[in-house]
Write a structure and sequence with these properties.
The complex is a heterodimer of chains A (169) and B (100).
Chain A lengths: L1 H23 L3 H21 L3 H25 L3 H4 L8 H21 L1 H6 L11 H12 L1 H22 L4
Helix pairs in contact in A: 1-2, 2-3
Chain B lengths: L3 H21 L3 H26 L3 H31 L13
Helix pairs in contact in B: 1-2, 2-3
The chains are: A mainly alpha (169), B mainly alpha (100).
Amino acid sequence: MLFNEVMFYVFGVMAVVSAILVVTRRNAVQSAIFLVTALLATAGIFLNLNAEFLFIVQVILYAGGIMVLFVFVIMLVNLDVALHQVQFNRQWFVALIISAVLAAQVVAAIAVSRHTLYTLAPAAPETLEPNTERVAFYLFHTYMLPFELASILLLVAMVGAVVMAKKRV
Amino acid sequence: MVPIGHYVFLSVALLAIGIVGVVTRRNVIIILMSIELILNAVNINLVAFSRLVGSVEGQIFAIFIITDAAAEAAVGLGIIIAFFRNRETVLADEMDILKW
């Protein structure tokens, strides 16, 4: 049980530090590499939460698929000029205030509900096992229609991306 | 088990960092990466509460969010390539036209 908690804090610190580095690095390639670290740390947190199927989906689809897409676009887009220009826009002060207000709101919400958040006992881990089987049951039984709609969404996105990136429309 | 509040705090931290990235950066590719961070924060929340309740349905929502993230990344990067081909820039400040 202690191992579980230690792993949560290790992965959590890893995710937060890599996320900060993603938004502060000057070079987009470095940002992409740190985004991979953040996504893999999130995958570790999923494993910590007994979500094995989602863990492997995160590793294959996010860290494998989407990140390859990002790195390809970074290579296609010539960033040498942009690298020497100002990286943050002029509204950063407004942005800081907005983020601070948002953070204050969320912290207040957590403070109000802290009794529930810190004392609620989690369900037994056996209720999530066997994980892949249960996910498949809900996906193909209760959430069949959203699943089909997601496939249409992916088709539309695929056609849209191909049309958008074509040389001559 | 780690109390659920710590998962919520981690999720809020990632969300705030992602919002700062979206609002302050000029490079559109990094803005898209920050959006991915925000979607990840939501996923952590959903999976944590799915573990708390003992039902797998939160993980189903997380799968749908990952699907959305993939579609959004594909279309967004296609737009970036098309824009870069025409205007030779990836900075959000300079994307101030509706047609060319």
